[in-house]
Structure formats: C-alpha cells, structure tokens
C-alpha cells in the first residue's frame, strides 16, 4: 500500500486558493472499518511557504478508513461508528500539567535574552507560571 496525502486547502490573500498545509497518512493505517477519531498534525507546504513554522500548521480531527468495494462489496454506512453521531463537545475533563523547563527560546529583549513565562488557558481561568528574568533556558519546576 502507498501513502495517502490529506491536504488542507486554505484561502489566503498571499496564496489564493492553494494547499497551505498537509498531512501524510499511510494507507495501511486506514484499514480499520470502525476507526476512532484521530488528531493528525499538519505540516506546512514548503512549496507555498504561507505557513512558516510547523507548530502553526494546526491539527485536524478526523475519522478516515479505506474499504475495498471490489473485495468486500458496498459498505453499510449506517453500521458501526459511521452511523453514530459525533458529540459536538467532549465530556468535561481535568488536565494536570507539570511544567519543567524550556530550552533555546528565541531572544525577545534588546540585550539578547527573554523574560519567559508559560500561560495555559482553560476556558475562563488562565493559569500562568512565574516570569524568569533574562533567561533563554528557564527552569520552572
């Protein structure tokens, strides 16, 4: 089996209606008839270069599967996970985050250092670490 390419098409004043981000998915990973929703990290398309950094390309949540109709016949979409409704919102969950350190942060101050902190927002209550002055490799613990 080969590789299936999933492209996210973005409209931009710079790129027009071109592929700006993509994800590569192996076809052998798509043979499950009742797949779970997978979060796939997108990559910026270097040929277009609209998205400059990979962490800004985004994620796509999708359920995808390959079905060979010549071998297995037509697929009944009302069975399995395909017939079930996807909840609009996930259930309430709690996240516990332990922040240790950062390394090689870009300098943001004129003296070649930064004053880093990490902010995590969870709906209405943002949480923030302390600010560590003049450091590109802060240790938070």
Tell me about this structure.
It is a single chain. The protein is mostly beta strands. It has two domains: 3-83, no CATH class; 94-141, Immunoglobulin-like (Sandwich). 6% of the residues lie in helices and 28% in strands. It contains two helices and seven strands. It has helices at 69-72, 80-83; strands at 3-12, 16-26, 38-41, 43-44, 59-62, 119-122, 125-128. The strands form three sheets. Strands 1-2-4 form a three-stranded antiparallel beta sheet, with no helix packed on it. A two-stranded antiparallel sheet has the order 3-5. It has a two-stranded antiparallel ribbon with strand order 6-7. Strand 1 and strand 2 (16-26) form a beta hairpin. The longest helix is centred in the middle third of the chain and has 4 residues, at 69-72. The protein is elongated. It starts with a strand and ends in a 13-residue tail after the last strand. The model has no long low-confidence stretch (mean pLDDT 75).
Radius of gyration: 21 Å
Structural class: mainly beta
pLDDT averaged over residues: 75
The oligomeric status of these chains comes to: single chain
The run of helices and strands is: EEEEEHHEE
Strand order of the largest sheet: 1-2-4
- The percent of residues in helical segments reads under 10%
Integer count of domains:
2
